[in-house]
Structure to design on (496 residues):
């Protein structure tokens, strides 16, 4: 059953190179492929460390955490040795920050879930699409959150909660609380392009929900490299 | 339940089955298979957990009950390895997996909570062991002629009837074969034969061939039970054990290579 659906999905995708828009009768629900964030050239001044040019509407609680962040990127950058960026301690980057690192993400899917395999930090994100609710036992909370998804036509709507408050939303230290609620609307606009509209809702850290628009580019023929181990780099740094 | 911090700390091979799930499951074995509808023997997809017999301690640190036939070269390495598990656990281990390095194969199978998710896509079988992803190429390619050491090796697979045969070389000799420190060399050649003998049962026969480390080829077996799809894989973040007042959010590295 599971395997059969795979074949159907892949058979579909093989027959429609870049012609999705013409096939609205049968919504495109195959996101599989190797993807990398592809920000527009107009965002080059900040796209290496932040999603948006505008400052998100921080609460005083978030401002204080933001000011305490010692970042390696952005306008207030410090040397890596002085940083308190969690990824320099080999901790998972969390969401949506992991996209910003611009390393390949492979999406594979079956009838139960959509799985994102992130080369950066070697993380596996399971997005359950079988109708299950969020896990009601999220203690301790998770680095990458608990993600469930549903298809609305050709858009995968992913709802993620259950995050710990140790990760940053980007590489310049915008914080979040454990009340973070991330909603992503992911759509394959053509064969080689994925769009992900992300809503950040965290009333403890931000005065109102705010949004991020991202685009990913397909990397045909590329292969995930699962060999980069953060701790190995730290060991080499020490030697 | 989904967050298996305790499991991650105990098992430390990035293996992720939640013990609660594994225990709760034994009484309802075929539930998972029923939920997945009809399966064919050439469909290995699902989440699989090792079936560890009660009262057999070596299942949690070794591949076999018998000592594998080490060469003098391997004996010396075995003595220098300081494991956290097994009959002779050390207070100050030099087990790289304790520094959150990948466990390698076949070590991923040497734990009572060993679990894996198998996903089949055209040209590949993807095996997920916590954060360690193995890609087994089924598109007919050969191993590359030159290969740098890889944490989980380079794997090619093919079907022989109802048996899926995985051939792996290029496994970094920084990994151990098991959790009690049996070493291997860069000549390790691992052959795994997976067979889904019933909808919810997967058998694994592995052959370990490493003439530099072992005087003859030896074998080990494991049986896996299908877990219900709803059980999920959990988030096993090894680094969680580094979060404490002493370390802050800093990695803790093993005492030596």
């Amino acid at each position: 059953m599971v395997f059969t659906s795979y074949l159907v999905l892949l058979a579909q995708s093989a027959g429609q190179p870049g012609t999705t828009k013409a096939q609205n009768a049968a919504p495109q629900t195959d996101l599989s492929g190797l993807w990398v964030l592809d920000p527009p050239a107009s965002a080059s001044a900040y796209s290496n460390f932040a999603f948006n040019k505008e400052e998100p509407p921080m609460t005083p609680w978030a401002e204080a955490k933001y000011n305490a962040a010692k970042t390696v990127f952005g306008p207030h950058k410090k040397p890596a040795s002085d940083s308190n960026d969690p990824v320099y301690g080999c901790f998972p980057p969390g969401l949506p920050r992991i996209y910003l690192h611009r390393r390949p993400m492979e999406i594979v899917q079956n009838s139960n879930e959509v799985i994102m395999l992130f080369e950066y930090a070697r993380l596996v994100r399971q997005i359950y699409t079988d109708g299950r609710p969020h896990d009601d036992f999220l203690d301790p909370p998770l680095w990458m959150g608990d993600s469930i998804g549903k298809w609305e036509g050709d858009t995968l709507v992913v709802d993620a909660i259950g995050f710990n408050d140790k990760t940053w939303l980007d590489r310049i230290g915008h914080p979040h609380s454990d009340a973070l609620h991330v909603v992503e609307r992911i759509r394959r606009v053509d064969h080689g392009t994925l769009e992900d509209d992300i809503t950040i809702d965290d009333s403890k850290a931000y005065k109102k929900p705010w949004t991020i628009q991202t685009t990913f580019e397909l990397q045909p023929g590329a292969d995930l490299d699962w060999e980069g181990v953060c701790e190995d780099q730290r060991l080499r740094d020490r030697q | 339940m989904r967050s298996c911090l305790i499991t991650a700390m105990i098992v430390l091979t990035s293996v992720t089955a939640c013990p609660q799930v594994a225990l709760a499951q034994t009484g309802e074995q075929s539930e998972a298979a029923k939920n997945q509808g009809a399966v064919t023997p050439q469909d290995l997809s699902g989440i699989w957990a090792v079936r560890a017999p009660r009262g057999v301690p070596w299942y949690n640190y070794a591949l076999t009950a018998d000592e594998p036939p080490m060469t003098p070269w391997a004996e010396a390495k075995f003595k220098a390895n300081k494991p956290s598990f097994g009959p002779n656990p050390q207070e100050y281990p030099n087990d790289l997996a304790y520094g959150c390095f990948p466990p390698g194969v076949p070590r991923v199978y040497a734990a009572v909570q060993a679990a894996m998710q198998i996903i089949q896509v055209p040209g590949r079988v993807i095996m997920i062991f916590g954060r360690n992803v193995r890609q087994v190429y089924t598109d007919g390619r050969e191993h590359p002629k030159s290969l740098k050491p890889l944490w989980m090796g380079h794997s090619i697979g093919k079907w022989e009837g109802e048996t899926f045969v995985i051939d792996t070389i290029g496994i970094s000799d920084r990994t151990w074969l098991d959790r009690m420190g049996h070493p291997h060399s860069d000549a390790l050649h691992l052959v795994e034969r997976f067979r889904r003998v019933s909808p919810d049962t997967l058998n694994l026969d592995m052959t370990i061939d490493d003439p530099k480390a072992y005087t003859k080829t030896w074998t080990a077996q494991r049986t896996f039970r299908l877990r219900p799809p709803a059980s999920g894989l959990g988030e096993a973040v090894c680094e969680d054990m580094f979060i404490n007042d002493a370390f802050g959010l800093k990695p803790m590295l093993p005492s030596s290579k």
Observations:
- The first strand of chain A starts at residue 33 and ends at 37.
- The radius of gyration of chain A is 18 Å.
- The first helix of chain A runs from residue 2 to 14.
- Chain A has one domain: 28-238.
